[in-house]
Every structure is written in C-alpha cells, then in structure tokens.
Specification:
alpha/beta; Cobalt-precorrin-4 Transmethylase, domain 1; Rossmann fold; 3 domains; 5-stranded parallel β-sheet; 40% helix; 18% strand; binds iron/sulfur cluster
Length: 317
Amino acid sequence: MKILLANPRGFCAGVNMAIECLEQAIRYFGTPIYVYHEIVHNRHVVERFRGQGVTFVNDIDEVPEGSILLYSAHGVSPEVRAKARRRNLKTIDATCPLVTKVHLEAVRFAREGYHILLIGHEGHDEVIGTMGEVPDRITLVESAEDVDRLPFDRDDRLAYLTQTTLSVQEAEQIIRRLRERFPQIVGPPKEDICYATTNRQEAVSQLAPQADAVIVLGSQNSSNSRRLMEIARSMGKPAYLVDSVEELRDPQTGAFPFRPDDTILVTAGASAPEDVVQDCVRTLLDCYGGEKEEVTVRDEQVHFQLPYELRVIASAQ
Ligand code: SF4
C-alpha cells in the first residue's frame, strides 16, 4: 500500500489557539471550568478535556453563577455574552480571530444600511453566532437555489458574507448566482473562507487524482472536514470521514475496505489531532505493508496569540 499524507492537514491556528486557551485556563483556575459548546468540533479533543474536568454546555443557564466560562473557537452571539454577564461569569474568549472578522464585517455592513446574505450552513455554531450579531438584518443562504427564492430586488442595498469553512468551489457558485441576480451586491474586501479551509481543500483537490481512496480524519460535525470528504467524492473517489481509522473496519470480519496495492490519501480536518493521523497511517501500514509519502502542497506559518485576558494572567505569573 502507498499512503499519501496531505500537507497541510489537521490543526489550524484558530484550533491551536482555542486548545491552548483551555489548557492554560485549566492550569490557572483549575476545574470546574465551563465551555460554551464544543471547544472545537472534534470528539477526541472534547473527550480529553472532559476527562480533565471540563464541562461543555449548550445553555449559559447551566453554568453556576460566578464560574469560569470559555467561548469556543466558533464564536458566540452578543445575546450569549449578555447572558453570561448577567450570571457574573468570568469569560475567556477563544473565538478564532478569523471568525471575529466575519462578525465585525456583519456589524459594519448592517450599520451602513445593508441587508446581509450570509452563505453558510444552518445550525452551525459559527453561523448562529454571526447571525446573532445583526438578527434583523441578515438572511442565511445555503445554496444557489436559495438565491432564486430571496425576496429582494435590484434596488435593495445588499451585502454577502460567508462562513469560514465552506467549500471554496460551492461558495464561488453561490456568489456568482448572487451577483447575477443582484449586480449591486457588495462583499467583504477579502475572502471570508479561511486560509486553513482553503489550503486543506487545495491539497485534497491536487492529491486525490493519484489516490484510489481518501480518508479524512475528523468528526461528523466538523464543517471543514465534511467539505474535504465531499470534494474527494465529487472527484469520483471513495472518501471516508472518520474520527479514527478503526471505524473503517468491517464489523464482522475486521477488514478494511482497501486492496493491498491501493494508494490511500490521508488528510485531517482543522480540528483533528495529529496523533489520530499517525495512528491511521501506522495501522494501515501494519495491516498492508508499504510506504508513506508526505506531500506538501502549501506552506503554512500562521499563529494567533492568546486572548488578552489570558495574556494578562500569564504575565502576572
Ligand atoms: S478553520 Fe479557519 S476559521 Fe476555523 S478556527 Fe481554523 S483558522 Fe479559524
């Protein structure tokens, strides 16, 4: 078997920052400590923190008054922040700066009198947070077909924004449709789909043609991981999104769905830890023999600093 290991893959700067935030918060404050939603969308990461005494909540009312609360990498709406203030929670904001950028763009466009068309997926934490910034001035658009149903016309002041973890190609199609229907529409000065999403998709698009099948390590609720699987499938490749390679074994026989001479492309979503990737490679090579080759499609050197509230504590130690 040949294993092609895509690079870049796995943790992005926003996920690294959010995880470091929670690790430092545990170190400084101990537990119990609370996180609003999953710190990042990955089962391994969430279970590890749960094992250390972190409680993940879906409602601020579940957090005892005066506790420490982290906001996850996906960001929150102003309503959530207000609720946390009312409960006297000490909050640490681990929102990825690239998500915050979209929130600020939504506020700016709304202030300038635009109605915003947010391209994204209903129910995703990031979309809920962004829409919550300007709930009366924003409409979610999930597909090119949605564009045709919009109740606006060519005189309306319209702007579009995108979720950070969309398929670059699908987002381009929707934006093209928006521009056809509403030539007056304006967009952000710079693309909202983040560098990590773009680079991981580019690596899969370039490398999948050389592979017989594609494994994406990541959780089912990870938006950017799902997009990697979909891109590989759209190129005609069998593609699997799994938290661990063990999920690919046939429950009866224990066999993997591969042939010994297959070339397998292995990648990971932005919230999937590297040890899960290495475990996948080791398991397949133990099973089939063969070799791995790491292929770098793009170099990444992005780092985000910890939020102000944690840097202040760190400098005082
Ligand atoms: S995927 Fe992009 S937007 Fe999301 S946390 Fe990572 S860098 Fe930030």
